[in-house]
Amino acid sequence: MHFKQCIHHTGLHMRDGHILATVDLGSNSFRIEMARLDHGQLVRLDYYKEPVRLGAGLDADGNLTAEAIERGVACLGRFAERLRGLTPDAVRAVATQSLRSAKNPEAFLIPAQAALGYPIEIISGQEEARLIYQGVANALPKDHKTRLVVDIGGGSTELIVGINTDAHRMDSMKIGCVSHTLKFFNNGKITEKAFEKAVIAAAAVFEEVSESFHSEFWQVAYGSSGTIETISELCGQLKLSGMSSDKITREGMAEIARIITNSDPKKWPFPELKAQRAQVLAGGLAVLMGLFQAFNVQSMSPCYSALRQGVMVDLLGRDMGDDVREQSIARLAKRWTVDHAQAIRVQSMALDLLAKVRNTVKVTEAQWLIWAARTHEVGMAISHDGFHRHGDYILRNAELAGFSRAEQAHLAQLVLTQRGGLRKSVDLLNNPSIAQEILCLRVAILLCHARTDVGAPNCVLRFDGKHIQWRCDEAWRNKFPLSAYLLDEEWRAWEKMGITVSAH
């Protein structure tokens, strides 16, 4: 049976009424947002956040403390109640700087995923920036102006320059409202001297990337998330002093700084400022003022869409066939000069073999095999000798938009396992479905070794995770003796892993 004849799509096929949800595990707050698809638009149904302050829960060695883990897990347990009944395809949970930097992320992830009931992805700073920009861009009109988008989180600040929905430059700086507050105002005192040092330090961080984000490279500036929303609201409350009610200005921030330094937070003239936000205001304000200095920003407009909305837009795009991961794979293959014809040749053969192993093949199941086939030779750009190991390194460390760290690691492991001994991927082999993909990839590469178009042999291939059955007619063995020899060697590699093989 040919693959194309038996493929089944198992995506959501989202229609009006479908509910999507995103969970944002930030360094300062955890947030959950739910939306319903209505005539192609996402309409917010619910939003909730808790000030978990995970970023403040790192000890001197960079490990998350038991108390921080407990706070985070308890919060996600409450979020789980709101997510009850949603399919895994409709929910995406992402973690940012705190878990990127933590030395013990698994200590949190294991109980956290159990509490939430859904997988949690640790995304890179670049991926966080891309998703933030998607959230902001989809909330703004298409005006063809070059935009600077800034998002100050608890432990990092994301910077993006783009036009409409296209991000051109992205970066993630390890500076945020929580980390900066802990560094300069850990004693709770906001002195003029400490605040001045905090602004200078922030400006120094952003000056490192000013060549890409200086005002000469964009026309209008937008900011998103809690810190910028708060500062914008405070500037609005100071409108009697001549401040704009909808923009953050240098004058407005200077006035806020004057009010909060050397004063009791209880006496600040901001009655709507929540206590949790007040605790990190000084750090966040210093970060933004330093950014204004480094990039020569004169004013910034708030945007009330950010990471959560970007994740939701991305989730919707995957269902609609606009998966940014496809674009990332194509760009990677082009950058590393992969032989496209051979990649497609191996892909086609691997999918045909997978269709023989399984009676039907789902798109979601085949997708990783497809990506592995397209990228299995990326390491050749470094050296033919051990190219599978070079490919593993490239895929683990490249910036691949749309992929989480775990997804990149999985793809890298598939590429690593394409040749040689199988002991290096023993964990993957314990999953029968993944083991089937590995088998089909390895056999496809062997059958396409001549780098010419050869059809899939008329054969039987079965594999249940414990036993491989291969049956092919003698005429094929006589026509392709080298392929037959290579396959005999391949079966020995599987037998070394305790897999029994019946080959005829």
3D structure, described in words:
This protein has a six-stranded mixed sheet, with helices on both faces. Strands 4-3-2-5-6 form a five-stranded mixed sheet, sandwiched between helices. The chain has helices at 3-6, 66-83, 97-101, 105-116, 125-137, 177-184, 192-207, 210-213, 225-237, 250-260, 275-278, 281-295, 307-319, 324-335, 340-357, 363-375, 387-397, 405-416, 426-429, 432-447, 474-479, 481-495; strands spanning 7-8, 19-25, 30-38, 41-50, 91-95, 120-122, 146-152, 157-163, 166-173, 220-224, 248-249, 299-303, 361-362, 459-463, 467-472, 500-503. Helix 15 packs across helix 20 (432-447). The longest helix has 18 residues, at 66-83. Helix content is 48%, strand content 17%. It folds into three domains: 7-122, ATPase, nucleotide binding domain (Nucleotidyltransferase, domain 5, 2-Layer Sandwich), CATH 3.30.420; 140-304, 2-Layer Sandwich (Nucleotidyltransferase, domain 5), CATH 3.30.420.150; 323-503, Orthogonal Bundle (Hypothetical protein af1432), CATH 1.10.3210. It is α/β, with parallel strands linked by helices and 504 residues long. The two termini are 20 Å apart.
